[in-house]
C-alpha cells in the first residue's frame, strides 16, 4: 500500500452489479481507498482481511442469491454495525420503499441513497459522513440520547464518567426507555470503541441454544449442531458485550457467566479446552432483580459482579421537557423519506401531557405511524389520542378515558367507521410484521389468523 493511499479514508463497496461497482470504484478511488465485495460472504472476507475497520461502507440491499429482496444487504449492514461500530454505513439501492429504508436504519445505516443517483450526490453524501464521524470528542460521543432535561443530562454525565472503566455495568430501566442506547454510548465513549459491540437477548433463547450463543459449540455438541461455531464472547473479542434481559438467564448459565466475570474463563459446548474472554460485559434489565434473588431465581453473587457499576435509565415521564425534543428529532429522521405531520396547538398539549407508558420506543412508533398515515397533514388531538390508545391498549379492554377518546373521534367531522377499522387493521398488521421481522407466518400467529388470510388482508389494506 502506498503512503498516499494509506492516508485516504477506507470505503467498503458491496454491490453485485460489476458495471456499477467498476464505475463507483473508478470515480471514488480519487478520494477513498476502495475495497470491493459482491455479496454478503465476500464482504465478510474483505472485512476480516482489513487491518482496521473501514471508515465508510456503501451497501446495496439487493445482493445474491436473491437480488429482489433486501435480506442479504440488511445482513451485511447489521454485521458491520455490530463488529465495526465506528464504520458509517450508507445504503445505495433501488429497493427504496419506506419499509426497507426504516429497516436499514434500524440495523445501523446512517444514510439511504436511492438508485439511480448522480455521482456528485454520492460524493457529497459520503463526505458528509466523513465530517460527521471524524474527530469525535466530548459530548459528541453521545448519540441517540435526545433531550435536555435534568434526568437526561445526568445520564449523559454518568455515561462519560464510567465509560472508560473495565468493570461490568448493570443498566436498569423500564422497557423502551433506552437501555441499549445507553449501552452503545458506554461503548462509543470507551477505549474499546473501535472494537465490536454485540447484544445478546437472554430471553430469546433457552437451554443449550443460549449457552451456545454465549460460549459457542463444537460440531455434534447437541442435536442440530452441524458445525463448530464461535459464541458471542469469542466474536466480540476485546469489545463490549451487552446481555439484555439478563434477569431471564437460566440458573445453570448464571454459574458459567459468573466464572467468566471472575476468572475470564469459559468452555465451548462439547469441548474441554479452556478459552479466555477479554470483553467488557454490560447487562440490562427491566425487572426487579432483588425480587428474583429472594425467589431463588437469580444468584446474589452474580448480581454483585454485574452491578459493580450501575446506571438507571429514566422513564420518559421523568424527563420533563424531552417529549418535544424527541418529537422534533424523530420527525427529522422520518422526514428524510416522507413529509411528516404537524401537531396543532391542542394536539401538542395532549402530546406533552401523555405519560408514554412504552417510553421512547412508543413515542417513536407513534411518530412513524402518524407520518405514514398523515404525511404533510395537521394532526388534531382526537386523531393523536386514537394513535396513542392503539399502542397503549392493543388487545386490551377500553378504559373510561379511552372510551371518551373514541366518542371524540365518532363526533369528529368526516368520521367513517369502515375507514377507522381499516386504519386499525393496517396498523396492527404493520406492528406484527415489524415485530416478526417480516415473517408472515409468525405475524399471522401473533394476529390470530392463518397465513392465507393475512396475505389477503395485506393486499386489502
Across the major sheet, the strand order is: 2-1-3-4-5
Note poorly predicted spans: 1-5, 135-140, 391-402
- CATH superfamily caption of the largest domain: P-loop containing nucleotide triphosphate hydrolases
Number of domains: 3
Structural class assignment:
alpha/beta
Please give the radius of gyration in angstroms. 24 Å
Report strand %: 5-15%
- Principal-axis shape: globular
Mean pLDDT: 86
- What kind of sheet is the major sheet? 5 strands, parallel
The CATH architecture of the largest domain is 3-Layer(aba) Sandwich
CATH topology assignment of the largest domain: Rossmann fold
Instruction: Give the beta-strand count.
Output: 16
Helix content: 40-55%
Number of helices: 21
Distance between the termini: 55 Å
The top-level CATH class of the largest domain is: Alpha Beta
Quick rundown:
With 461 residues, the protein is of the alpha/beta class. 49% of the residues lie in helices and 13% in strands.
How would you characterize this protein structure?
With 461 residues, this protein is of the alpha/beta class. It is built from 21 helices and 16 strands. The protein has helices at residues 3-7, 18-28, 40-49, 71-83, 98-106, 119-133, 150-162, 179-188, 207-215, 232-236, 251-263, 289-294, 300-306, 322-335, 345-353, 359-373, 381-392, 400-411, 417-435, 440-447, 451-460, and strands spanning 10-14, 33-37, 56-59, 88-93, 109-114, 169-172, 197-201, 216-217, 229-230, 240-244, 265-266, 275-276, 280-285, 309-312, 342-343, 378-379. The strands form 5 sheets. Strands 2-1-3-4-5 form a 5-stranded parallel sheet, sandwiched between helices. Strands 7-10-13-6-14 form a 5-stranded parallel sheet. The protein has a two-stranded antiparallel sheet with strand order 8-9. Helix 14 crosses helix 16 (359-373). Residues 1-5, 135-140 and 391-402 have low confidence and may be disordered.
Amino acid at each position: 500500500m502506498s503512503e498516499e493511499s494509506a492516508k485516504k479514508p477506507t470505503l467498503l463497496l458491496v454491490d453485485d452489479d460489476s458495471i456499477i461497482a467498476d464505475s463507483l470504484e473508478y470515480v471514488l478511488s480519487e478520494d477513498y481507498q476502495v475495497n470491493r465485495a459482491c455479496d454478503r460472504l465476500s464482504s465478510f472476507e474483505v472485512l476480516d482481511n482489513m487491518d482496521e475497520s473501514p471508515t465508510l461502507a456503501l451497501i446495496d440491499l439487493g445482493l445474491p442469491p436473491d437480488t429482489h429482496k433486501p435480506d442479504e444487504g440488511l445482513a451485511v449492514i447489521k454485521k458491520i454495525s455490530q463488529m465495526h461500530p465506528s464504520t458509517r454505513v450508507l445504503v445505495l439501492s433501488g429497493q427504496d420503499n419506506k419499509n426497507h429504508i426504516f429497516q436499514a436504519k434500524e440495523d445501523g445505516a446512517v444514510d439511504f441513497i436511492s438508485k439511480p443517483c448522480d455521482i456528485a450526490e454520492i460524493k457529497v453524501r459520503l463526505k458528509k459522513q466523513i465530517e460527521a464521524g471524524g474527530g469525535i470528542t466530548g459530548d459528541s460521543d453521545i448519540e441517540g440520547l435526545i433531550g435536555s432535561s435534568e434526568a437526561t443530562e445526568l445520564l449523559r454525565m454518568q455515561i462519560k464518567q464510567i465509560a472508560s472503566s473495565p468493570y461490568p455495568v448493570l443498566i436498569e430501566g423500564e422497557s423502551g426507555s433506552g437501555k441499549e442506547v445507553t449501552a452503545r454510548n458506554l461503548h462509543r465513549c470507551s477505549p474499546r470503541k473501535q472494537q465490536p459491540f454485540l447484544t445478546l437477548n437472554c430471553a430469546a433463547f433457552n437451554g443449550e441454544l443460549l449457552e451456545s450463543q454465549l460460549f459457542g459449540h463444537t460440531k455434534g455438541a447437541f442435536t442440530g449442531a452441524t458445525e463448530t461455531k464461535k459464541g458471542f464472547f469469542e466474536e466480540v473479542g476485546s469489545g463490549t458485550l451487552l446481555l439484555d434481559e439478563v434477569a431471564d438467564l437460566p440458573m445453570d448459565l448464571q454459574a458459567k457467566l459468573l466464572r467468566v466475570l471472575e476468572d475470564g474463563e469459559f468452555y465451548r459446548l462439547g469441548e474441554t479446552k479452556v478459552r479466555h474472554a477479554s470483553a467488557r460485559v454490560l447487562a440490562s434489565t427491566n425487572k426487579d432483580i432483588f425480587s428474583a434473588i429472594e425467589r431463588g431465581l437469580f444468584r446474589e453473587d452474580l448480581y454483585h459482579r454485574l452491578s459493580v457499576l450501575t446506571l438507571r435509565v429514566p422513564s420518559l415521564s421523568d424527563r420533563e421537557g424531552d417529549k418535544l425534543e424527541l418529537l422534533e428529532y424523530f420527525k427529522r429522521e422520518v422526514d428524510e423519506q416522507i413529509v411528516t405531520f404537524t401537531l396543532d396547538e391542542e394536539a401538542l398539549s395532549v402530546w406533552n401531557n401523555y405519560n408514554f407508558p412504552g417510553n421512547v420506543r412508543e413515542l417513536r412508533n407513534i411518530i412513524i405511524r402518524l407520518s405514514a398515515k398523515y404525511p404533510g397533514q395537521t394532526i388534531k388531538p382526537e386523531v393523536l389520542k386514537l394513535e396513542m390508545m392503539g399502542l397503549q391498549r392493543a388487545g386490551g379492554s377500553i378504559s373510561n378515558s379511552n372510551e371518551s377518546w373514541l366518542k371524540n373521534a365518532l363526533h369528529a367531522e368526516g368520521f367513517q367507521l369502515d375507514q377507522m377499522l381499516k386504519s386499525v387493521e393496517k396498523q396492527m398488521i404493520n406492528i406484527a410484521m415489524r415485530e416478526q421481522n417480516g415473517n408472515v407466518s409468525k405475524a399471522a400467529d401473533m394476529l390470530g389468523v392463518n397465513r392465507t388470510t393475512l396475505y389477503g388482508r395485506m393486499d386489502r389494506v
